[in-house]
Amino acid sequence: MAEGRGELPPQPPLHLSLPQASKRLCLRPAPRGPGPGPGPGFPNSRFRCPESLLDCAAKAVAEKWAFERVEERFERIPEPVQRRIVYWSFPRNEREICMYSSFQCRVAGEEGPAVGTGAPAGSGAVPGGVTSTTGAAGTGDGLPFRRGIRLLETGCVENVLQVGFHLSGTVTEPASQSEPEVTHKVAISFDRCKITSVTCGCGNRDIFYCAHVVALSLYRIRKPEQVKLRLPISETLFQMNRDQLQKLVQYLITAHHTEVLPTAQKLADEILSSNSEINQVHGAPDPTAGASIDDDNCWHLDEEQVREQVKLFLSQGGYYGSGKQLNSMFAKVREMLRMRDSNGARMLTLITEQFMADPRLSLWRQQGTGMTDKCRQLWDELGALWVCIVLNPHCKSEEKSGWLKQLKKWGDMDICPLEDGNYGSELPNITNALPQSNFAQDSLARPRRTVFTRAMEACDLHWQDSHLQRIISCDYYMSPAYQREGESLLFNPQGLPLWLDHVPTACARVDALRSHGYPREALRLGVAIINTLRLQQHRQLDIYKHQKKELLQRGTTSTTNLEGWVGHPLDPIGCLFTTLTETCRVEDDNAMDTGDSGEHKPPVYHHVPVWGCPDGGESYLALALEVALMGMGQQRVMPEGLYAQDKVCRNEEQIVAKLQEMELDDLLVQTLRKQAILLLEGGPFSGLGDVIHRESVPMHTFAKYLFSALLPHDADLAYKLALKAMRVIIPLRLLRVPANTQSITRLGAAHTRLPVLESMAPSGDLGHPHHGISIVPSRYPRWFTLGHLESQQCELASTMLTAAKGDMLRLRTVLEAIQKNIHSSSLIFKLAQDAFKIATPADNPPDITLLNVALELGLQVMRMTLSTLNWRRREMVRWLVTCATEVGLRALVSILQSWYTLFTPTEATSIVAATVMSHNTILRLSLDYPQREELASCARTLALQCSMKDPQNCALSALTLCEKDHIAFETAYQIVIDAASTGMTYSQLFTIARYMEHRGYPLRAFKLASLAMTHLNLAYNQDTHPAINDVLWACALSHSLGKNELAAIIPLVVKSVHCATVLSDILRRCTMTAPGLAGIPGRRNSGKLMSTDKAPLRQLLDATISAYINTTHSRLTHISPRHYGEFIEFLSKARETFLLAQDGHIQFAQFIDNLKQIYKGKKKLMMLVRERFG
After folding, report:
1. Quick one: DSSP state of residue 641?
2. Which alpha helices (DSSP H) does 595-733 contain, by range?
3. DSSP 762
4. Smallest Cα–Cα separation from 36: which of 83, 91, 76, 103?
5. Residue 305 has pLDDT above 60, yes or no
6. Does 739 score more than 80 pLDDT?
7. How many Cβ atoms from other residues are within 10 Å of residue 983's Cβ?
8. What angle do helix axes 572-582 and 620-633 make, rounded to 10 degrees?
9. Angle, CA of 12, 191 and 241, to the nearest 5°
């Protein structure tokens, strides 16, 4: 690549070897005589004198020619000329120093590289627009560049000496709290305004130059008149005689005898030997004499450090810092390309080598897993950078061939990532404007496309087209007026040039021009592309207008864009937008961003007229907005694969974020309105038209931006667009559609959802009258991002609801669109919550219209989730009651009366009715007595209905709600009695029975408890059963009611309970007090204790003894020695029960004897039994 602004010859082929300091052999003597000082072009006075012709010529030669070529070209070079060439050979632009000492350098007002331009070095101005203060915007005090400026300004640079093409000096690092003052020796070699090698005593190893190298370099740029300048040392030595040379060598050895003496003696021995190699070569090397003709002329770049840093960042995986650093390195590559520095391609090659050596690639391939999202983004940027590299408009063919060979080598590796993740690609070739008709017929035969495929395809592109050359080289390139009649492929009807190329490919050319430091040319080509898109848009609109009626009647379309511009690997829309807005960006004067600024400041734009525009009414900023709207509104098919779909969403959000940074003035609003209308009328070519493909990417994110931007200026158009974008998403994975058909959804003026229609048209019908890519894929992709798309649809609806607050008609329209097009209950619930929050501000009265919308949405959620499982269902029900309470009495009455369409019986009684009848609700609504009675009546009716439908779960709640109304309470009680024998469990009946006792109905509680006992079965070993407490309570209740009730329940207990310990507990409690203590009116309490020998306790005693006998035999069947002690205690409790009978001691003795006889084999156990019981 050539340096500078003009059209200069390309650079020599790229070599990836590290450039060494020049040590070419010097023979020719230099002329003697005094040399000039700094020269007339750099006086120390406050007035700047014109540069001399000598300085002008020396500057040009110093920048372009190696000094060896100058020596070969001219037989004698005067010493003043040599001095000026040496003087001007040092870099003159601080931006280049900054580029190699910080991550990202961006200078205010920059339009491209300005190497060799700027103020004279001795004039006091800072070349390149870099300020000399550390307080500029974007200051990063920790970066080497800023630290170097600080060292320079604090006077830490001393002993600066330039000998030929070698600069040396000392830089003193001031003392700090933890470190003493340290002085470092710094040496810099340079050639043709580039630093070719650096050496610093600090020993710092990094990609960037250290602060000491920066300080010395800036000292030479800012204070050249204070630098001692000498010719190359070989010229000085030639002027000495033998005695002087001997004295020089001896003094040099004496000053550094410990370091150079062995080397000096070795060289002396070789020189004195006539057959030594050193005597076979004429002349001697001179490190200060500049580079030779064959040396690479490029800036010093530590390749090993680049490799190590990239390897380190990749090894850190998905950490945020490592991804940020790698992105900064990519930005550094782009910065080098913009400065036309050959190290850009060199550094990208080093980065790519480390990316390909990442061990995770083979691991991911073996495991069949995809790489992380952040890694995919890094690989995408890598591929895009290679496209920029190979599209360099001034690279040599051998360079491009070398890159193509390397890219093919990387692409052929099995571990090379694919362009679209784990899926094959059906995207058109980068060099084709239209795909082939049989493109999608055989998906299995598709070529393998890697991240480098597009760069390899770009190698086939060239810049020799005469029309293209005229576009990028002239602002006023137009067709003659007499040629503007009829169709033309080169110019539009206004005579402005067009560039008919595959849009992503054309935009890749724009990105390449911009990236390589040709912003003006990039703008010209970008404008031609936009003119082409405009013409295509108008022609598509004309086609649709002529066929609109037929198309809508058939309900079919075969026109769609398989390869969308948003989310495309080459990012064509983002590229055009950035190119156009960069020239409109207002920067802080003399401000440099070194990539370490603390916070992002939104850009400020101003209108810049389009160069060469005939009427002067065009603005680059308006064009940027227009092309962004065109790209975002393009109807395009959802791509395959999770990553590709996620990339579409992410790219769309990035473009919208950039659009939101633009402040809309009258011109931009006019552009916005015009494009919005065209998108609405665009038919099958627009994502907001009347005809959409079923797999078309939804426009929700884009429509949300359009709505917010248009609302203050044209509310009707804003709502029309947003409502159009709200149309329903129909993923094909949910539908049964033949694979060779294509379907569309039509949305009429009233935004009603019409049936999805199918088309049997051939998928590859290129003869269709519509223009554009007309491919139907042979597969219907799974919508991995459906959840994200639905959330964006919800955000669009929420935005419209917020804006429509207070407007009943618009709220109703938005509500209808939500109800028809959003099918996720969770999202509708979120919308309802949002509407409720907006409608009930803390400091203002509620908006009743918006509250009603929130309520209607909540009712829809209730209906949608009534028969499905939803973990947030209880939250939804409680929220709906709260919302209805805010709306008022009529809303509460309505949901109570129509409960069966909204709630389950359990929800209706336990949550809805209970909350409605609470004291807080009554106070919140400030109801009078008739209103409270109306509400209570509705709640009781609901409770009885629910109790009839689901008595198991609603009976208790119904009884509670009906307490204050005798008839309703009796009805609820009768429902419980009727359901007790069939559908209710003992636990439910016991719960209701306890409630009845608590409310003062002991006889009803007894009846319910008796019914519960008939459902219970307690086995002999269930001595911890949860129903035991209920059984004890039921027996206690019966005992307290009287002998008759106890006699009635004991048979039920004997039948249901077989656990001996429970039965003995019941028996003991019944014998402790007299029955009839409840004091039932009309009954007389005898006050006598009941005997176990008489009914009803006799039956209970016999059952208890029998239970002990059976339980004993059961336990002895599988007893282990560690349970012997527990078993003896069990027999002790059994004896207590036996003794309650008159002949209990005899029965127990017989029982023990039987055990001894039956289980005499368990000798140890029986011994314990004899010891305790005889």
Report:
1. S
2. 620-633, 642-660, 666-680, 700-710, 715-725
3. -
4. 83
5. yes
6. no
7. 12
8. 170
9. 130
Q: What does residue 540 show for φ and ψ, rounded to 5 degrees?
A: -60, -40
Instruction: Retrieve residue 688's tokens.
Output: 């907001």
Q: CA–CA separation, 435 vs 774, rounded Å?
A: 8
CA separation for the pair 750, 179 (Å, rounded) = 76
Residue 703 pLDDT > 90, yes or no? Answer: yes
893-909 mean pLDDT: 95
Q: Which residues contact 891 (CB under 8 A, 6 or more apart)?
A: 855, 883, 884, 885
Burial bucket for residue 480 (CB in 10 Å: 0-12, 13-18, 19+):
exposed
Dihedral sign of CA atoms 706, 707, 713, 715 in order: positive
- To the nearest whole percent, how much of the chain has pLDDT over 90? 36
Q: How far apart are CA 1151 and CA 106, in angstroms?
A: 103
Q: Cα–Cα distance between 182 and 170 in angstroms, integer?
A: 10
| Dihedral pair phi/psi, residue 36, rounded to 5° | -75, 165
Share above pLDDT 70 across residues of the chain, in percent, rounded to a whole number? 81
Burial class (CB in 10 A: 0-12, 13-18, 19+), 623: buried
Residues belonging to the chain = 1174
Quick one: which of 79, 87, 77 has its CA closest to 39?
Answer: 87
* Whole-angstrom distance, CA of residue 995 vs CA of residue 964: 15
pLDDT at 730: 54
Q: Which residue, among 420, 524, 536, has the nearest Cα to 477 in the 3D structure?
A: 524
Cα-Cα-Cα-Cα dihedral sign, residues 942, 948, 952, 958: positive
3-class secondary structure, 895: helix
Would you tell me how many other CB atoms lie within 10 Å of the CB of residue 632? 27
**CB-CB neighbours of 318 under 10 Å:** 11
**pLDDT band at 47, cuts 50/70/90?**
low
Could you identify the residue written with the tokens 């007026």? Answer: 481
Bridge partners for 161 per DSSP? 168, 228
Residue appearing with tokens 């959620």 = 861
- The pLDDT of 240-245, averaged and rounded, is 84
Residue that is written with structure tokens 């000329």 in the block? 81
Residues 6+ apart with CB under 8 A from 1081: none
Q: Is the dihedral of CA 945, 949, 954, 955 positive or negative?
A: positive
Phi, then psi, of 632 in degrees rounded to 5: -70, -30
- The pairing of strands 284-285 and 25-26 is antiparallel
